[in-house]
C-alpha cells in the first residue's frame, strides 16, 4: 500500500489539526532518517563523518518535507521518533493526564499524524495511543479553561502541547462568551413601562 493511500493517514484528529499554522511548522520539524542508498557528493551533510558521500546506513536528521520526498524515492527510511515508541506509549497509557506533552514535543499530536504516513509496523499502535491520550486529556483541558482564575491552572497549561493550548484558549473564549450572554442587560425581559403605569392607575382607582 502506498503512503498516499494509507487509511491511517486520514482520521478525524489528523484532519482537524493538520492545517496552518500547525501543518507548516510540522513539515519543517526534523526527523531521523537512515539512508538506504549511497548518495554521492553530499557527505558534507553528515558532520560526524569525513566521507565524500552519504553511505548506506548513515543516520541523519532531516526536515520532514525532505525526509518524505526521499522516502518516496526509496533513498531513506524514516525512523520512528522516540517519543512515539513503545516505552513512551506505555507512560501515556498509564496516565496521560499527568504527562508533560510540551516537554516531550510541542507539536506532539500533529507530528504523529505525519509520522504514521510512512506505515511503520507500529503506526496503528501510535494512532490508537494518540487518540486515547487526547480523549483522556481533553476533559481536563476544558475544565481548566473554564476555571482559569483558580490556582494551579498555570501548571496545567505548561504541560500542554501547542494544539492543546489552542483548545484551551478556545475554551476560555467560549466560556467568556457564555458568561457575557448569561449576564446580558439589554436583552433581559422586563415589564414594559406602559403596563407598570396601567397597574398604578388601577390601584389608585380601586
From TrEMBL:
<dbReference type="GO" id="GO:0000811">
    <property type="term" value="C:GINS complex"/>
</dbReference>
<comment type="subunit">
    <text>Component of the GINS complex.</text>
</comment>
<dbReference type="InterPro" id="IPR055221">
    <property type="entry name" value="PSF3_N"/>
</dbReference>
<comment type="function">
    <text>The GINS complex plays an essential role in the initiation of DNA replication.</text>
</comment>
<keyword id="KW-0235">DNA replication</keyword>
<dbReference type="InterPro" id="IPR036224">
    <property type="entry name" value="GINS_bundle-like_dom_sf"/>
</dbReference>
<dbReference type="InterPro" id="IPR038437">
    <property type="entry name" value="GINS_Psf3_sf"/>
</dbReference>
<protein>
    <recommendedName>
        <fullName>DNA replication complex GINS protein PSF3</fullName>
    </recommendedName>
</protein>
<feature type="domain" description="GINS subunit">
    <location>
        <begin position="84"/>
        <end position="181"/>
    </location>
</feature>
<dbReference type="InterPro" id="IPR010492">
    <property type="entry name" value="GINS_Psf3"/>
</dbReference>
<dbReference type="Pfam" id="PF05916">
    <property type="entry name" value="Sld5"/>
</dbReference>
<comment type="function">
    <text>Required for correct functioning of the GINS complex, a complex that plays an essential role in the initiation of DNA replication, and progression of DNA replication forks. GINS complex is a core component of CDC45-MCM-GINS (CMG) helicase, the molecular machine that unwinds template DNA during replication, and around which the replisome is built.</text>
</comment>
<dbReference type="GO" id="GO:1902975">
    <property type="term" value="P:mitotic DNA replication initiation"/>
</dbReference>
<feature type="domain" description="DNA replication complex GINS protein PSF3 N-terminal">
    <location>
        <begin position="24"/>
        <end position="70"/>
    </location>
</feature>
<comment type="similarity">
    <text>Belongs to the GINS3/PSF3 family.</text>
</comment>
<dbReference type="Pfam" id="PF22466">
    <property type="entry name" value="PSF3_N"/>
</dbReference>
<keyword id="KW-0539">Nucleus</keyword>
<dbReference type="InterPro" id="IPR021151">
    <property type="entry name" value="GINS_A"/>
</dbReference>
Amino acid at each position: 500500500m502506498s503512503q498516499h493511500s494509507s487509511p491511517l493517514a486520514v482520521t478525524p484528529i489528523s484532519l482537524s489539526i493538520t492545517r496552518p499554522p500547525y501543518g507548516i511548522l510540522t513539515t519543517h520539524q526534523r526527523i531521523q532518517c537512515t539512508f538506504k542508498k549511497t548518495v554521492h557528493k553530499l557527505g558534507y551533510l553528515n558532520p560526524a563523518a569525513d566521507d565524500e558521500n552519504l553511505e548506506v546506513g548513515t543516520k541523519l536528521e532531516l526536515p520532514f518535507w525532505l525526509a518524505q520526498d526521499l522516502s518516496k524515492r526509496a533513498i531513506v527510511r524514516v525512523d520512528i521518533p522516540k517519543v512515539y515508541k513503545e516505552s513512551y506509549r506505555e507512560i501515556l497509557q498509564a496516565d496521560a493526564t499527568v504527562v508533560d506533552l510540551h516537554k516531550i514535543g510541542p507539536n506532539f499530536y500533529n507530528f504523529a499524524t505525519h509520522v504514521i504516513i510512512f506505515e511503520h509496523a507500529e503506526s496503528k499502535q501510535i494512532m490508537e495511543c494518540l487518540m486515547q491520550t487526547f480523549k483522556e486529556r481533553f476533559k481536563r483541558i476544558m475544565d481548566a479553561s473554564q476555571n482559569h482564575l483558580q490556582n494551579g491552572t498555570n501548571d496545567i497549561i505548561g504541560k500542554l502541547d501547542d494544539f492543546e493550548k489552542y483548545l484551551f484558549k478556545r475554551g476560555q473564549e467560549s466560556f467568556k462568551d457564555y458568561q457575557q450572554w448569561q449576564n446580558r442587560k439589554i436583552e433581559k425581559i422586563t415589564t414594559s413601562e406602559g403596563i407598570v403605569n396601567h397597574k398604578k392607575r388601577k390601584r389608585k382607582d380601586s
